[in-house]
Amino acid sequence: MKVVKVINNNLIKSVDEKNNEILVMGCGLGFKKVAGDEIDESLIEKVYTCNEQTNSRQLISYLKRFL
């Protein structure tokens, strides 16, 4: 799994094996990462998927408030 965008140290935007957009959360997961870097899967605590009804920008802003 690769980084598409680092939201903050704990939240990363990526894509799953079906090329669906996902948000991956974990303590320090995005620290010193840039787009294209591999994600250390041992640090992943939660994975959020975006479907047609969910706008990824809304989900990102929602999660930013709690991190």
Condensed summary:
This protein is an alpha+beta fold and 67 residues long. The chain has a single domain (5-66), classed as CAT RNA-binding domain (Transcription Regulation, Sacy, Chain A, Roll).
Folded structure, characterized:
The structure is a single chain. The chain is an alpha+beta fold. It has one domain (5-66): CAT RNA-binding domain (Transcription Regulation, Sacy, Chain A, Roll), CATH 2.30.24. 16% of the residues lie in helices and 27% in strands. The chain contains one helix and four strands, in the order ββββα. The protein has one helix at 56-66; strands at 5-8, 11-15, 21-25, 46-49. It has a four-stranded antiparallel sheet, covered by helices on one side. A hairpin with a 2-residue loop joins strand 1 (5-8) and strand 2. The longest helix has 11 residues, at 56-66. The chain is globular and about 30 Å long. It starts with a strand and ends with a helix. The model has no long low-confidence stretch (mean pLDDT 87).
List the SSEs and their pairings.
Elements: E1 5-8, E2 11-15, E3 21-25, E4 46-49, H1 56-66
Antiparallel strand pairs: 1-2, 2-3, 3-4
- C-alpha end-to-end distance: 22 Å
Helix content: 10-25%
> What is the chain-wise order of helices and strands?
EEEEH
Query: Looking at this structure, what is the CATH superfamily?
Result: CAT RNA-binding domain
Tally of discrete structural domains: 1
Low-confidence stretches: none
- Structural class by secondary-structure content: alpha+beta
Helix segment count? 1
Strand order of the largest sheet: 1-2-3-4
CATH topology: Transcription Regulation, Sacy, Chain A
Spatial shape:
globular
Main β-sheet, in a few words? 4 strands, antiparallel
CATH class group: Mainly Beta
- Tell me the β content: 25-35%
From the alpha-carbon coordinates, what is the Rg to the nearest angstrom? 11 Å
